[in-house]
Amino acid sequence: MDPTLQFKTKSQYTISLLKEDLKTIRTGRATPSLIESVTVDTYGGSTKLKLMELSTITTDGPTSLIVSPFDPSTIQDIEKSILKSPLGLSPIVQGSKIIIKIPPLSTEQREKFVKTAASKIEEKKNQIRNLRDEVRKSIKTSFEKKEIGEDEKFRLEKDINNLTTSYMEEIQVLKEKKENEIMEI
Description:
Blueprint: H1 3-23, E1 39-42, E2 47-50, H2 51-54, E3 55-59, E4 64-69, H3 75-84, E5 91-94, E6 97-101, H4 107-144, H5 150-183
Antiparallel strand pairs: 1-2, 3-4, 4-6, 5-6
Helix pairs in contact: 1-4, 1-5, 4-5
């Protein structure tokens, strides 16, 4: 398999995981992605499902979310799971739906969430660097085994370096965007 293609595929997957990860970090604005991956123990603890699999999540203005379970019998399980989540949210059950007010973040909380985002971003940057190093080793091995020529080796290495630079720039853009969202009042 072409090492450049392999690197592209794995790196793009890593970046898509990062995007999903960043969605779960709270900002001052209510978004369904904030709670959609909260795990809910339901049906007597026999089933673990993500909140998005059990309900419809919509926004009601910039500071509240409405959770409408598909099965009304799961409403208590959903409420418990949201309370237990590390997001620090307080759900309010109203009939067959749950309303979640998203309180404004304090400066301290904002700084904490920026640090959390930064550590997730750094982790993914390291994964891409490790992928780059693996691909470089495979290129070097192919060259030593005389499977590829010197020109091909240099071309592949240059391609990998250019791709790495573009992925790092993409991650930097994601980081700045997320930091701005968190710090926005």
